[in-house]
Amino acid sequence: MAKTALLVGALLALVMCLAATAVSAQRSLECQMVWQGPSSNNSLLECLGNTDRIRSQWPYYLYPAFAALVFIFTVIGLPILFCCHCCSCCEAYVKPKAETDLGVARCCLWMWIVISVLVACGVCVLLVYGSVLLEQAAKQIIHDTEYRTLDYFNDTRANITMLLTNYSADPPTPPSIDLSAFDAVNDNVTYYVHLARNNYLKYFRAAEIVVCCVGSVGVFLMLCMLIFALCRCSGICPIVWSCLYFVFALAFALLAVLFTICIYVMSAGCGEVDLQYSREPGVFQWYLVPWCEKQFDFQALRAQVQSQEQQVSQSACGALLNFCDNDPNYSLENKNHIFMCGNSITDKSQCNSLDDVVDVVLSTYVKPMLTNTLCANQTGMEYLEKCTLIS
Asked: Where, by residue number, does the polypeptide cross the bilayer (predicted)?
């Protein structure tokens, strides 16, 4: 009897270790093993159905496969065992005749009752906790998409408009570039976010309620089995409840298969997100990014922004060249040239980006001859030889 209990405990521990290993080891779908490179024409179905990829990820399928075996055993094995035990097999356990056989039967009965009650309580806690986390995760994803992803796109659009606006005109002239790609992304994402919040979030709440009910029913049924054993109930009632147990066993076994598949999908999704953070090959970099570039014309927008940025940068450096040159001596002939040009620029064409403008401005300083005149009242300066535009 002790050996049987130890064997059952060892098997349960092995299953839990396999579950933890399968979940924690998952990294990604590894579609980069199937696809040749980044393309919007890459097929997810081709990736998922590739036999080489499936064979390489065999450790990740252990727990779903075990859950599927439990379901098959519940559908086929339990009815066969029930019929065999009731007919002729294991009479010492099912129909004990001697007093010693009666003791063995009751010992086995209590062992399985205790295991069943403990497992039912554990499953109930995990179901409730998992359903709550799932609902919270769904709400958080929608919230982050609306208030972080969309804010990022809108802030990028606003920054482009602000940096490329001609403030020297009255009124300021906005850049003549097509920002419709940002509007298209914003409209599409907003539509799907509102669709998910209005139509699908309620199902997560309903699933949480259903899972709590199912988990509670499981615990209740196991406790009823404990009551039957304590009261030594016999006759038609335990047989009817056995049929009810069988129905719920099928339901829980099927839920186990579905949940383990969801675990695989979600852990693979987390792995894909990690790959995207590091910009490594994966579903995002090799499929979603090319698909987005195909759907939304950011290439043309990038070219327009670069062209407009070059114009604004050259205009800024051209304005600065009216007040600076590379001659350290101040001359009344060029009395407006009171600064030494940063980066020794001589023409506005040397400024092709806003970064170039910033570098030039930071390195522009007052000519040494005019330092005491223009910078004498500057505080916190150790040397007056270089009084920059910033100081």
From this structure: 61-87, 108-129, 206-231, 243-266
| Cβ within 8 Å of residue 361, ≥6 positions away | 320, 342, 389, 390
pLDDT in tens, the chain (391 residues): 445 544 555 555 555 555 544 444 446 788 888 888 888 888 888 888 888 888 888 878 787 888 888 888 888 887 887 777 666 555 544 455 555 555 555 667 777 778 878 888 887 888 788 888 888 888 888 888 888 888 888 898 888 888 888 777 778 888 888 888 788 888 888 898 999 888 888 888 888 888 888 888 878 888 887 787 777 777 677 777 778 888 888 888 888 888 888 888 888 888 888 888 888 888 888 888 888 878 777 777 888 888 888 988 998 999 999 999 998 888 888 888 989 998 989 999 999 998 999 999 999 988 877 776 666 655 555 554 566 655 5
Say whether 337 sits in a helix, a strand or coil: coil
Under a CB-based contact definition with an 8 Å cutoff, are residues 314 and 357 in contact? Answer: no
Cα(301)–Cα(178) distance, rounded to whole angstroms?
A: 7
